[in-house]
Amino acid sequence: MARQHFFLILVLTFGIFSVGCTSYNKNSEGLRYLGQARYNEAKIAFEAALKAEPNNADTYYNLATTYHQSGKISLQSGQSADAQLQYDQALRNYQLALTYNPDHTEAHRGLAVLYMETLNIDAAFKLLIDWYQTNVTSSEPKIELARLYQEYAQICQLRSWNDVAKECHDSAVRMLQSVLVTDPNNYRALRALGYLKELQGDWQGAVTDYQRSFQSNPQQKDLENRISAQLQK
């Protein structure tokens, strides 16, 4: 009987390990296709990953991103009907990613961007404000909400809604500063704050924040290049 129990445990363990490997391999394959803009192959790979592990929020996010990018291509090609179908699938999969992981940062970001691109501004803000209000001590919702404020400020500037643009810019700055009060070395918040200062023409302040961000995370090679470019001005 003991040997039978050991054999059953071994089979179950191997099965779980096998499922995990299949999901990981198919996700890796899908990401490779996505990086090559081979969207149909990427979708097939991510769908296969979901069959192996149907509760994986990262896979739903990967699939949503694939549909999102595919929809952009269709829209640029003048295929508006197909673009809408792709966006609908992207929306569905972003939402599934958040169902399985309500704190999935990238899925919140991707869905907010999708809402903005489809001019559903209210939905974008509601999504991130709701996330922030249920995670008031977390840095990530504040950073993403700050990015949304900054992006909407740029839209308002293009439409000459200068008062609204300034209000959104100030809200973005406040959000990022609130992150740095409790997490002074948060490289994402520092980088985002530096970018806001750069947009306002405060090059010295931008470089200072960029340098602090780079010190917190030296893997940001693109930021290192940006710092060098600013210092040479």
Q: Please identify the oligomeric state.
A: single chain
Radius of gyration: 21 Å
Shape descriptor reads: globular
CATH topology of the domain at 17-101: Serine Threonine Protein Phosphatase 5, Tetratricopeptide repeat
Q: What portion of residues is helical?
A: over 70%
Rounded to the nearest angstrom, the distance between the terminal CA atoms is 77 Å
Helical stretch count?
11
* Overall residue-averaged pLDDT value: 89
Largest sheet: none
Taken as a percent bin, the fraction of beta residues is: under 5%
Judged by helices, strands and strand pairing, the structural class is mainly alpha
Helix-strand sequence: HHHHHHHHHHH
Low-confidence segments, given as residue ranges, are 6-20
CATH homologous superfamily (4th level) name of the domain at 17-101: Tetratricopeptide repeat domain
The CATH class of the domain at 17-101 is: Mainly Alpha
The beta-strand count equals 0
CATH architecture of the domain at 17-101: Alpha Horseshoe
